[in-house]
Amino acid sequence: MADGKYTVNEVEERTGVPATTLRQWERRYGVPKPERSHSGYRLYSDDDLDDIRSIKSHVDDGVPASRAAALARRPADTPSSGPRPIDALRSTLVEALVAFDEARADRVLAEAHSLHGVEDVMLDLMQGAIVDIGELWHESKIATTTEHFASAYLLGRLRQIMMYAGQSRNGASVIVACAPHDQHDIGAMMLAVMLRRAGFQVYYVGANTPVLDLAAMAQHVHPTAVLISASSVDAVHQLIEGREHLRGIAPVLALGGNGFNADPRRAELVGGIFLADNVRDATRRLQELVDGIGTGAAA
Ligand code: B12
Predict the structure, then answer these.
(1) Same structural domain for residues 230 and 176?
(2) Is the confidence at residue 84, as pLDDT, over 90?
(3) What is the pTM of this model?
(4) Going by CA atoms, what residue is nearest to atom 28 of ligand 1?
(5) Closest ligand 1 atom to the C-alpha of 147?
(6) Is residue 261 lining ligand 1, measured as CB closer than 6 Å?
(7) Which of 60, 155, 228, 253 gets the highest tally of CB atoms within 10 A of its CB?
(8) Is residue 20 domain-resident?
(9) How does pLDDT run across 19-51, given as a tens digit for each residue?
(10) Is 236's C-beta closer than 6 angstroms to any atom of ligand 1?
C-alpha cells in the first residue's frame, strides 16, 4: 500500500543502510519503491522498510544484492502487479543467469519484449544485466564461468534479434568489428543489431579483428562505413598503431566503445570520428552522415 512517510534520512537511521545504497537498490533492482513528495523527495512506507531490512539481512549473510532484492520483492516473478519496470526485470535476469537458469532468463526476456521496445530491452535490460554481472565478478561474488555463461547467453540472444531484423540488400553497407585483441563484442553486436534494424546492410565481424584483415575485407565489400569498437585504452592503442591500414578504409571510419567514451578525441588519433557513447544515438548520427554523403554534403 502507498503510505510513504519516512524520509531517506529516517530510513537510514532506522535500517543502517546508507542513502546512496538505498538509491542504488531502487535504480538497479526496483526495490524499495518509495513514493515521491510534491517537491520530489523520496518517502518510504513501512513495507519499504521491511524490504530494506530483508535485503540487508540477506546481504549481510553473503547473498548478492540482486538476489537479495529479488527475494524481498513480493510476490516474486509474477506479472500480476502490472508491467514490471526494466530495472526489476534486470535484477531477475541477473538472478536467473547467476543461477544458470536459462529457461527463466528466456522468460524474463520474453516478458521484457512484450512490455518494452527492442532498443530498451537491449540498452537498459541486457546491457544493464551484463554490467551488474561484471560487477559481481569484479567483487569475486561469482566465478568466471558464471560471467562467461551470462555473456554467451546474451550474445546468443542478440544474434537472434539480429537474425530477426533481416539483412537489407539496398541499404548502405557497413562493417562492424572490434579492435585487435579486444574480446568485448557485446557492444559491437548491439550496434550491428541497431544498424540492421535501421536498414543498413551489416557485415558483422566481431571480436579481436586485426586491422590489416579489416582493410582487406573493406577492399572486397566496399562498405560506406567501417565501425570499430574498442572497450579499453589498450584497445584504442592497438588501433592507433594500425592507423596506417585504416586510412581511407571507407568514406566513414567510426570509432566507439568505452575506450573512446571517456575521451572521444582519441578517435582523431586513429583517424576516424566518434559517433556517440550509445548505439541508439550512434545509429542516428551515422544515418545523417551517410545521407550527407549521398547528397554530397559530407565526405
Ligand atoms: C562482459 C565483460 C567481459 C567478457 C566479454 C564477453 C564478450 N563476448 O563481450 C570477457 C570475460 C571476455 C571479458 C574479458 C576481459 N575483460 Co572484461 N568486461 C566485461 C564487462 C563486465 C561488460 C562489458 C560489456 O559487454 N558491456 C555492455 C556493452 C553493451 O557496453 P559497451 O561495450 O560499453 O557498449 C556500449 C557503448 O560503449 C557503445 N559502443 C560500443 N562499441 C561501439 C562501437 C561504435 C563504433 C559505437 C559508435 C558505439 C559503441 O554502444 C554500446 C551500447 O550502448 C565489463 C564491465 C563493464 N562495467 O563494462 C568488463 C571490462 C570491460 N573488462 C575489463 C577487463 C580488464 C577484462 C580482461 C582484461 C580481464 C582479464 N584479466 O582477463 C579481459 C580482456 C579480454 C580482451 N582481450 O579483451 C575491464 C576493462 C578495463 C579497462 N582497461 O578499460 C572492464 C571495464 C571491467 C573492470 N571494471 O575492470 N570481459
Answers:
(1) yes
(2) no
(3) 0.78
(4) 187
(5) 11
(6) yes
(7) 228
(8) yes
(9) 989 988 888 888 898 888 777 788 988 888 888
(10) no
Domain closes at, from 56, 74, 92: 74
Of the listed ranges 44-48, 78-82, 176-180, 281-285, the one predicted with least confidence = 78-82
Cα separation, 142 vs 128, whole angstroms: 17
The phi and psi torsions of 278 (rounded to 5 degrees) equal: -145, 155
Q: Which of 74, 103, 135 is the C-terminal boundary of a domain? A: 74
Instruction: From the CA of 282, give the closest atom in ligand 1.
Output: 47
The count of other CB atoms within 10 Å of the CB of residue 211 is 22
The reply to whether 191 and 258 lie within a common domain is yes
Residue 55 belongs to domain spanning: 1-74
CATH classification of the domain holding 272: 3.40.50.280
129 dihedral zone (left: phi>0; alpha: psi -120 to 50; beta): alpha
Residue nearest to atom 74 of ligand 1 (CA): 183
Ligand 1 lined by 289 (C-beta under 6 Å): no
Q: Measured from the CB, is residue 151 less than 6 Å from ligand 1?
A: yes
Q: Each residue of 227-251: pLDDT tens digit?
A: 999 999 999 999 999 999 999 999 9
Same domain, 212 and 264: yes
Residue 155 CB contacts under 8 Å (≥ 6 apart), including other chains: 185, 186, 189
